[in-house]
Amino acid sequence: MIRVVLPAHLKNLAQVHGEVQLDVDGQATQGSVLDALEAAYPMLRGTIRDHVTKKRRPFVRFFACEQDLSNESPDMPLPDPVAAGTEPFLIVGAMAGG
Amino acid sequence: MGGVRVLVGTRKGAFVLTSDEKRAQWDISGPHFGGWEIYHLKGSPADPDRLYASQSGGWFGQLIQSSNDGGVTWEPVGNEFTYDGVPGTHLWYDGTPRPWEFKRVWHLEPSLSDPDTVYAGVEDAGLFRSTDGGQEWMELPGLRGHDSASAWQPGAGGLCLHTILLDPSDPARIFIAISAAGVFRSDDAGKTWRPMNRGLRSEGIPDPDAEVGHCVHRIAMHPSRPNVLFMQKHWDVMRSDDAGESWREISGNLPSDFGFPIEVHAHEPDTIYVVPIKSDYEHVPPDAKLRVYRSRVGGDEWEPLTNGLPQRDCYVNVLRDAMAVDSLDSCGVYFGTTGGQVYASADAGDSWTPIVRDLPAVLSVEVQTLP
Predict the structure, then answer these.
(1) What is the pTM of this model?
(2) What is the ipTM of this complex?
């Protein structure tokens, strides 16, 4: 079970409160977690990464275990505590105006 | 009970303003989608409770929302806008080729007859259509496939398709306008397009009367007379009496012919409204007085409408999609400002009252006249 924390705007859009908990098939990577997130909450498609290229939107960041994973490969395994569900995977709106 | 519903898109959410036919007391609901830019929202002429909203933002991109209860509740629908085929390039500000890249939906135009069919005008300029209530969007690629498209350049606000007019007398005829390419018309329901810019003259482009390249800010038509079009261009207010084939200037005695919106009275096809703005450098009203100008003779002769509008120290702008009319017996006229005011006139512009004064900057205003 993977724990995901969404930014406030996307919590509102997905109509969730608190953390999202996801079962991920296979290894937990950015890509597999986002696949599972978008399957559970289709309204989030296109808001975190591009529909077609799957590229992260420029003002979205991915943090976990006090690290910025935004520029890591989508196929790279997430840190063990995220995969084990002891630490959340954070999806963050960048501090970039608004 | 009849009345009006005013749909207001702002920099930080959408607001729905409702009133009875007197238009004196208003109920204000919102913000819907607080914090998001709402470039436009509009109701279906075929089902007034079906609304569509374009919701976007720098963080999370584009969403489309739909309502089936007049804006009380909303559901996100499809938000995938993928250009048909290999997108190709247009010109960037510096004159270099730049690949087409979807930015946002500027304008939503529901079909006149089918609540599930809606058109979307997007940046970078393209026209999309959904026939399933906004779930899936398909580009009408003939527009971007026009020979001139590789030479289109963005206006200051981006290369945006901001106006879509559907001809009520001919379902196959569509007009669109792009900043800064100009007006195009399709006579085959969007398959093929022709530029409709003859008579426009723009000093800011190398060939002032070029076929394509004009910064058209807005076009408007009266549904009873779809061959007559009115245009607010970057500079110049224009009129066409032949469905866009040719245009003539009708700026007449306006204090400035720069501006953004243009609207037509609901019952008088030759009564039109503009909001003059001082210049393209200074997006503020001339003399710091907010004045709507009305022509009752289809242009050239204009009268200022000031009753109830600020006549000193006013430095707001009125954006291109931020003016609309209702179709009650005494035509109502509405506009929103970048200062967050929404002004309404229940007497065709003779007098004005702010419905609300302190919204976020207003991007769009649409009005529904309810049965």
Answers:
(1) 0.96
(2) 0.93
